[in-house]
């Protein structure tokens, strides 16, 4: 099947379309329904009648955007009418929800008269927190947006005008930086003089470009003052008329620094690119075919051509999804009355800044695993980068507050945490630990320090103030890799082959002499195995915690820390714990990595240690020891182990959280089963610490929950060690290393 057939099938599969309405409150009982509707709904109605701003408190208005169109200028399709534009508007709603957790009603108005269109939208103002205008032909779109901005008291944004302006504006900031050119000196040529081109030219002026340096061309050639005086251009084009001789696009491009294409494909030749100034910037954004192809433009010159298009199959895609969801997120969250120029500039500057930062592994993987680094082929962030939300929305919110457009203030530090929570419970939980780590950073040794991921993680750990990272490995190689990655930091390195670490070898020999390790072998292990080196470093107090395992099998990476550091004084067994986060629930799963066939003492110890770990995430533990039996319904050696472990914990005065077992998994996590059938249980709420009877079931269970249950997994986190040690999994990403470093710092703080 081709793309068209696939798209048709995608849209017609039941339920048709791409969006639905879902409830956010319980509707299971008669009581629920009486609160949701009559008679209970009268109470919030009366509150809003007294104070209309309470609509933001008692309804979804504050998170609801109307995507409004008449289908008169649908991208690539033209004037297809209101009804035919509905799939596009639904798609816009999908993007709002996917990238910024904003709900949308799509509104298709069968009305091309601008004044009637405005009146229709004005009547819907009480419904929405903001209006996104979409696919409306020029010049009507200018009239509609200007009137709505003046006449209604919620943000109005025409994405076709301003989206491309803002995203390409971010690209221009970075392209000028890379080309070492000042914005105010740039000679800029536009191909196209429609809504998007005019809005983009205006926005470039807001960024610092000079209006007198902008030459705009339409289908008749350069827009000159002579043409404007003759009435040959409309009022919107007239503002960019220049006092220059008449000519065509080729004439305009000669000597230009920047070409901005918002017209049709194939208008620009290699000769026209060759006529431009040195290190030209070319934004050929016509879709699906750019004004000049990527390879063609690059091949036209020997110097650096910084190229952007509207296509996803080439570097530097100018994609509006980098803007509108996050602009509205920030605007809605401060209850802004408008989206003003300051907010748009803040968005562009935030995007430009983000492109200069290290790129997460997940983003790199999404684009084929090729390196992504700030430079001519990476001047704007990728749309799937989750950091865009945390970077852009707060910048927009701050600009709204400072410019007077906001109706409510925000604590911007707390706001970022609220945004994290919108992307999932795992990010919310990790934010708790990250904040704790930053409050009192410790020193974290990173074995396998020559690994690129470890180096990038060290940069982020240091940049965020989580810890002082020490990379263990060849110092020259580490510094060379850091420089090649464009990481602006001086890593702290411990090079076993260069430094004087004889005392480490002596200590390792002292610890392992009666386990068959000679002094010579101890020296070789310290110099040649970063796991042993890091373990001794932590054991000797030269670092507070250790991370290892990125390129080792888990047992191989765990062995040196167990041999050198060992378990805590009052603990005989370590265990591996995963934190699994669902939309509205967090569970800690143990043991999934260490103890193959634990007896009741081990199960009890693992439960205690996991409960302590949960509290580091500000989660009050409720522990269930799992089996295929419920409270003695089956009696054999296997079911007795968790049952006896539960009794041991219940009798232990040091255990101050509820524990019960043995019980089946659904009994542990389903409130109706727990309270209805087993009301005698020590657990008065579903368990959030799940202790499996053996390694096999624990590993299977957490992976099924992760893959089929849609849980995000953080870990494995090693508990029970005498000093903080965490063993990564092979293939972990940089964010996983940073997360476990944060956990290790909080562990060290407990020490």
TrEMBL record:
Family stated for the protein in its record: In the C-terminal section; belongs to the phosphate acetyltransferase and butyryltransferase family. In the N-terminal section; belongs to the malic enzymes family.
Q: Name one GO molecular function term.
A: NAD binding
Malic enzyme NAD-binding domain ranges (all copies): 161-401
Q: Which UniProt keywords apply?
A: Metal-binding, Multifunctional enzyme, Oxidoreductase
Q: Which cofactor does it need?
A: Mn(2+); Mg(2+)
**UniProt keyword annotation of Nucleus present:** no
Instruction: Tell me the protein's name.
Output: Bifunctional malic enzyme oxidoreductase/phosphotransacetylase
What EC numbers are recorded for this enzyme?
Answer: 1.1.1.40
Q: Which residues form the Malic enzyme N-terminal domain?
A: 16-149
Q: Which organism is it from?
A: Natrialba magadii (strain ATCC 43099 / DSM 3394 / CCM 3739 / CIP 104546 / IAM 13178 / JCM 8861 / NBRC 102185 / NCIMB 2190 / MS3) (Natronobacterium magadii)
Name of the gene: maeB
Record bears the keyword Oxidoreductase: yes
GO biological process: one example: malate metabolic process
């Amino acid at each position: 099947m081709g793309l068209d057939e696939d798209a048709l099938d995608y849209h017609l599969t039941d339920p048709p379309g791409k969006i639905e309405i879902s409830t956010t409150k319980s509707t299971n009982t008669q009581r629920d329904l009486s609160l949701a509707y009559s008679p209970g709904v009268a109470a919030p109605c009366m509150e809003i009648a007294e104070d209309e701003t309470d609509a933001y408190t008692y309804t979804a208005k504050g998170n609801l955007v109307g995507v409004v169109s008449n289908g008169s200028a649908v991208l690539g399709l033209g004037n297809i009418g209101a009804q035919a534009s509905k799939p596009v508007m639904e798609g816009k709603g999908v993007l709002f929800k996917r990238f910024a957790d904003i709900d949308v009603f799509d509104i298709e108005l069968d009305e091309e008269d601008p004044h009637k269109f405005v009146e229709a939208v004005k009547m819907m103002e009480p419904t929405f927190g903001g209006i996104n205008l979409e696919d409306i032909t020029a010049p009507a779109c200018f009239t509609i947006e200007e009137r709505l901005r003046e006449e209604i008291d919620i943000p109005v944004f025409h994405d076709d005008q301003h989206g491309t302006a803002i995203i390409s504006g971010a690209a221009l900031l970075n392209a000028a930086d890379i080309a070492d050119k000042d914005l105010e000196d740039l000679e800029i040529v536009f191909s196209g003089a429609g809504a998007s081109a005019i809005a983009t030219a205006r926005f470039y002026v807001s960024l610092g470009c000079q209006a007198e340096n902008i030459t705009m061309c339409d289908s008749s050639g350069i827009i000159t003052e002579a043409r404007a005086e003759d009435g040959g251009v409309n009022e919107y084009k007239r503002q960019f008329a220049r006092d220059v001789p008449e000519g065509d696009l080729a004439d305009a491009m000669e000597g230009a620094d920047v070409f901005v294409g918002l017209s049709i494909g194939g208008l620009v030749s290699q000769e026209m690119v060759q006529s431009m100034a040195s290190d030209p910037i070319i934004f050929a954004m016509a879709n699906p075919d750019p004004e000049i192809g990527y390879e063609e433009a690059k091949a036209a010159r020997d110097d650096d051509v910084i190229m952007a298009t509207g296509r996803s199959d080439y570097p530097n895609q100018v994609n509006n999804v980098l803007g509108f969801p996050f602009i509205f997120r920030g605007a809605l969250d401060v209850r802004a009355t408008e989206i003003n120029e300051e907010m748009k500039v803040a968005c562009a500057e935030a995007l430009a800044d983000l492109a200069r930062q290290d790129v997460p592994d997940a983003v790199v993987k999404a684009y084929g695993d090729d390196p992504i680094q700030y430079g001519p082929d990476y001047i704007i962030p990728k749309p799937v980068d989750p950091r865009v939300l945390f970077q852009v929305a707060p910048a927009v919110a701050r600009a709204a507050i400072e410019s007077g457009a906001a109706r409510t203030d925000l604590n911007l530090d707390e706001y970022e945490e609220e945004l994290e929570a919108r992307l999932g419970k795992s990010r919310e939980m990790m934010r708790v630990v990250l904040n704790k780590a930053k409050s009192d950073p410790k020193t974290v040794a990173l074995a396998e320090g020559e690994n690129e991921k470890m180096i990038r993680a060290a940069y982020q750990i240091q940049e965020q103030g989580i810890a002082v990272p020490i990379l263990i490995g060849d110092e020259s190689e580490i510094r060379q890799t850091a420089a090649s990655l464009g990481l602006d930091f001086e890593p702290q390195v411990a090079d076993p082959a260069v430094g004087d670490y004889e005392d480490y070898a002596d200590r390792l020999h002292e610890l392992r002499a009666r386990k068959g390790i000679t002094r010579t072998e101890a020296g070789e292990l310290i110099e040649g195995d970063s796991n042993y080196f890091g373990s001794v470093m932590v054991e000797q107090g030269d670092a507070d915690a250790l991370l290892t395992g990125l390129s080792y099998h888990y047992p191989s990476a765990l062995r040196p820390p167990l041999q050198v550091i060992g378990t805590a004084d009052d603990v005989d067994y370590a265990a591996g714990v995963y934190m699994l986060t669902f939309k509205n629930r967090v569970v800690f799963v143990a043991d999934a990595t260490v103890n193959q066939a634990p007896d009741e003492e081990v199960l009890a110890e693992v439960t205690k240690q996991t409960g302590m770990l949960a509290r580091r995430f500000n989660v009050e533990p409720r522990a269930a020891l799992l089996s295929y039996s419920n409270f003695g319904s089956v009696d054999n050696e296997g079911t007795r182990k968790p049952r006896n472990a539960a009794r041991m914990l219940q009798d232990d005065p040091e255990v101050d959280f509820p524990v019960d077992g043995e019980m089946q998994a659904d009994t542990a996590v389903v409130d109706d089963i727990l309270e209805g059938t087993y009301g005698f249980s020590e657990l008065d709420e579903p368990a959030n610490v799940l202790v499996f009877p053996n390694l096999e079931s624990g590993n299977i269970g957490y992976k099924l929950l992760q893959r089929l249950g849609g849980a995000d997994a953080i870990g494995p986190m090693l508990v029970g060690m005498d000093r903080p040690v965490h063993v990564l999994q092979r293939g972990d990403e940089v964010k996983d290393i940073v997360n476990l470093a944060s956990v290790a710092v909080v562990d060290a703080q407990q020490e």
